[in-house]
Amino acid sequence: MLTKLIAFLTFLLFASASLKAFHQPRTDLDCPVPDLYDECLTECRLDYIDCLSHCESSYCHSECLAIFSGCDVSCPCGLECELGCVDCEHPICERICENAQEENEEYKVCLQKAQENFIGCTKECPPDMNCHDSCYATYQEELSDCPCIETQTTTTEVSTTVTTTTELTPIDPSEISILVILMDLSASYLTSGDGSSKVAAKISAPSNDYTTYAKHALVNGQLHIFGGNTDRRKIAKLNGCTFVELSARLNVDRYDQSEALSIQSGSQALICFNLDRSKSCEIFDGSSAVTTFESTYTHNNGGLGFYQNQPATVGCYRNRHKKAETLTSTGWLALPDHPEALAGHSSIGLDDNSMILLGGYIYGSGYQTGIWKIKEDVWSRIGELTQSATYGSAIYTGRSIYHFSGYSSTYPNHRIDLTADEEIKEVVRIGNHASAYYFPVLLVTENNRCL
């Protein structure tokens, strides 16, 4: 018991020293929301300690520090929000608008001024409705500039990201072969869908960590990976059992917490987001990558899947929000908020136009077992994994969803069998990884590939 206590205290001292070396607190007194800044920074520190407690390597420690740094600068009065909650996207800023009519002095002053100007304007009007309408239009314009007043804008641009899904036929899991390529290429393997067979696979690449934090998607029938730690703008495809880097490049750094999805019946890939809270997206068509609509909110580790035949994303690790969006031909549109501030989950679109989320992480609650579905704009929790899993990858084939974990617990891998109506029939654990292998690259293939 004493040994464990000493180890725990040593861990806390290490974490505290790391933060002191890495973080320089604000020394000025200009922060307009000091209480929110202090609360946000406390959450960042707790999140950092939680992240560090799960580390098994110095690289992981560095990742935790990078996450803490991003969390710190995004706080109100941090480097990205130096004016407090003015033009700051951090969800903690939403609290200043709760009961704003009673508690937010800036809003009350702005509202009063707009009302006084409106009354003064109408007093000067003759008995003419056009004058009163003009006064009201001016009042609305002034009110829209007040804090906590939300306005909406639309766009008429056209995108090409709408796609369709293909009807799936049930296949016995023992007949399914999935190539699982890990961030340690030498640990990659070929497995059967029932987990009864697992054989080492030989994958060649310029380096053994070539796929680390890269995201993958099929384009024209070939597996492609995008970004990653070795080169954040690289695009490579798997030729046989060898990754070959293409001359085409991504337009934005894509690595940890980016997402990728095969779209347009597999002829293109949509690649979005990154650790730096980018809202940007781009489309790769096999020869080049071009930018497309930015999302309304940040969605790093928010996943990409299909909902109602359109790409969709849910949640955000860095900003811890519940927002969901879908990409249409005119841009990103809001979906109903998820009940939880979920991130690190895997997203799968179903034939009935619904979308499933598997596992993930919720700040304050930890790693998750939940299986969520959104159908007809209603969220429901429809099942549970046998053990928590996050930062993994999923693939849907033969009326079963296969989820390979990246982190948490014993790194479990699952198969979720569905009925003809795409309801959960059974959740089966089909194995586990020996260590944390974030975001495995998955490919359904023949049963002797790369052996």
Could you characterize what this model shows?
Strands 3-2-1-27 form a four-stranded antiparallel sheet, with no helix packed on it. Strands 4-5-6-7 form a four-stranded antiparallel sheet, with no helix packed on it. It folds into three domains: 84 residues, no CATH class; 40 residues; 272 residues, Kelch-type beta propeller (Neuraminidase, 6 Propeller). It is an alpha+beta fold. It starts with a helix and ends in a 7-residue tail after the last strand. The protein is built from six helices and 27 strands. Helices cover 22% and strands 27% of the residues.
Number of domains: 3
Strand order of the largest sheet: 3-2-1-27
Helix content: 10-25%
Oligomerization: single chain
Strand content bin: 25-35%
Q: Count of DSSP E strands?
A: 27
Mean pLDDT: 85
CATH names the topology of the largest domain as Neuraminidase
Main β-sheet, in a few words? 4 strands, antiparallel
Name the overall outline.
elongated
Give the name of the CATH superfamily of the largest domain.
Kelch-type beta propeller
Structural class: alpha+beta
End-to-end C-alpha gap: 47 Å
CATH architecture of the largest domain: 6 Propeller
Under the CATH scheme, which class of the largest domain?
Mainly Beta
Low-confidence stretches: 4-9, 151-167
Rg, rounded, reads 25 Å
Instruction: Note the total helix count.
Output: 6
